[in-house]
Amino acid sequence: MMTESAQESKVAKAKAVKSGPERQEQLINLLSRKAGATTKQMQEAFGWQPHTARAAISTLRKAGVSVERTDAKRGAVYHIVALV
Q1: Helix (H, G, I), strand (E, B) or coil at 32
Q2: pLDDT tens across 9-23, in order?
Q3: Angle at the Cα of 58 (from 57 to 64), degrees rounded to 5?
Q4: H helix or E strand, kind and range, residue 52
Q5: What separation in angstroms does the CA of 84 have from each of 28, 32, 61, 63, 70?
Q6: Which residue intervals make up region (Disordered) (predicted)?
Q7: b/e per residue, 27-61, with b = 16+ CB within 10 A?
């Protein structure tokens, strides 16, 4: 059983980890770049599998964000056209 101070310490560490931008905000920043982002770049940035990266883009689209997909030599490139 944990003491109260140990539990408080654990909670403080968890809050410290969450202090940065949310994943969705990070993804929007990544896709807002002039060059956009490939699925591979999203995988490397977040530690995701390819299907998770595509699902995250789908979630953005459902939220009203206009995401464009273009094909390039390096693979599919996703880029935010307009934020709602």
Answers
A1: coil
A2: 555 555 444 445 689
A3: 95
A4: helix 50-62
A5: 12, 13, 10, 8, 21
A6: 1-23
A7: bbebbeeeebbbbebbeeeeebeeeebbebbeebe
Q: Which structural domain range is residue 27 located in?
A: 22-82
CATH of the domain at 46: 1.10.10.10
Query: Rounded to an integer, what distance in angstroms lies between the CA atom of residue 32 and that of residue 48?
Result: 19
Q: What are phi and psi of 58, to 5 degrees?
A: -60, -40
Q: CA gyration radius for the chain?
A: 17
CA 26 to chain CA centroid, nearest Å: 5
